[in-house]
Amino acid sequence: MASAFDPEKARVPPALQLPKPPVTKASHADPSSRFIFKIALCQLSVTADKERNIAHARKAIEDAAGKGAQLVVLPEIWNSPYSNDSFPVYAEDIDAGGDASPSTAMLSEAAHRLQITIIGGSIPERCGDRLYNTCCVFGKDGKLRAKHRKIHLFDIDIPGKITFVESKTLTAGENPTIVDTDVGRIGIGICYDIRFQELAMVYAARGAHLLCYPGAFNMTTGPLHWELLQRARAADNQLYVATCSPARDTGAGYTAWGHSTLVGPFGEVLATTEHEETIIIAEIDYSLIELRRQFIPDKLANYVEWVHAVQAQRVIIIVRGAKKNFDQTTAIAQKEMHEYQHQENKLGVQ
What we know:
One of its GO terms (molecular function) is omega-amidase activity. By secondary structure, the protein is of the alpha/beta class.
């Protein structure tokens, strides 16, 4: 599995102009010429029994594929209780694969057997002496196409409501993750990553059709921000946004909000659910991205595309610079920023 995976290629592909969707205005009325597919959001119950969690996820994936889903999304931390005590115990060596990572071995086998693409939620990953909150993407061939390590860790303290500090056990990832699949170009984030619009802008600038965020918002921020942030990221970038939460377990140490959702490129909620365990099946039609973008005048659209490309490079520099020694990125940042400031001056951008 590890030999087929090129992390640099998956996380940082060449910058692209916003792509032409797979249909034109003329063909929008002809369903036979449009690329429409079904997505499944598997809102799973999670227990302390890891073997049960893996078998349960496999069954959900099979059920979703049986209903016609070509893309299946799992929740954040679906193989383990969501706690700092559990992360080290349930962590797997994803790069080693096989018996060292039974969760991803199952995902790989299921994707290949069912001929579907799987956004594998996230699991605790062990790499050397570090732990990560990691999402794996598997293609129809069962190969690992991308691996996203949660960039923005969930360190929060709302007095009288909730306190959780992921950084006690987990290490932050360093790279945005965008991946080409059989169902389009997908940008990946995990839970708290959705709060950072710059990350979504990176993905939009690099031609993503869909943003997927496995996430486990809580009972405090969930009612306030979960749907709001999904709709904002979709409307900001005129893309599809899909989220997948664990089902709510009020007896667990951490109680998830649930409400897995698919949002369309105009910020409209296309499918959602409550907090119980369920599988949402919904359709995605990428021609709607083009349709929504027709509302923006061509000159403004071109300007927005250019600004997105500039901001994408800035954010990647900032993300990497925040995680590594600043001296290692200073020269790159100065060169990049000099060029972009020159372009801004030419266009009169303030």
